[in-house]
Amino acid sequence: MSGIPAGNRHGNIERFSGFEDTYDRYRPSAPRQVIDILSSYIGRKPGRVLDIGCGTGLSTFIWMNHAEEVVGIEPNDDMRGKAEAKLRSQPDHDAKGSIRFISGYSNQLDFKDGSADLITCSQSFHWMEPISTLAEAARVLQPGGVFAAYDCDWPPTASWQAEKSYVELLGHADMLLRERQEQQDQAIKRNKESHLQSIIQSGKFRYAREIVFHNQELCDADRYIGLALSQGGLQTVMKLGMNDLEEEIRQFKAHVIEHFQDRTLEVLFSYRMRIGIK
Known about the structure:
Blueprint: H1 10-14, H2 20-26, H3 32-42, E1 48-52, E2 69-73, H4 77-88, H5 93-96, E3 99-102, E4 116-122, H6 130-140, E5 141-153, H7 160-180, H8 195-202, E6 207-219, H9 221-229, H10 232-239, H11 246-260, E7 265-277
Parallel strand pairs: 1-2, 1-4, 2-3, 4-5
Antiparallel strand pairs: 5-7, 6-7
């Protein structure tokens, strides 16, 4: 792919091609706590919110009616196309006029200096080059603006057997890709535990901290299985035609079905948000 700014990796962008429907169906929307926490730091209704690496818009649409302008920024055409299709289907014509989606990169934002109140990265900052991304975020944020990177702790709660099987399955998928995928095609996933330190070390923010919270959602076996299948590593293994994990996937599904037993249950999604105040 030509035209990608330095610091961005083709494998990171293309990792999510072709499974936007699975991603959007099973992944959680960003919870209301995100709006409440970040708006409280701003001290008012945000003017412009930039949601970088927005994917299918699961973290963008929550700002409808809660910000004057919301821009979802996503370099992957398939994921952004899904977000745009969802926007067209929104019934509230006035509210949806405040939201738009554009192609772009985290370290090359087409916005003026000091023009945004909030910049968010939901489940996405670990795919970005942190030094150049944070420098660009600081440029675009106005004084007192907030940069926020927030992520789920996968998986959500279930039985210990289902959770253990989930973690092992995704770990084995990543191992297969490291061993068999061409190095130039591999995605680079940075350690989420380093996000706060990256914000602090950037020197661009006068205050930084981590905030933890949780959100309860309803879930059945189909959704819990879908959450695993929506993970990029497992999707890439399947796209490459590797069948090494078929038996492990079958065992994972069995653990999940045994836990849910045709029931819809409450599960807990745990979140970690790392913020920097410009």
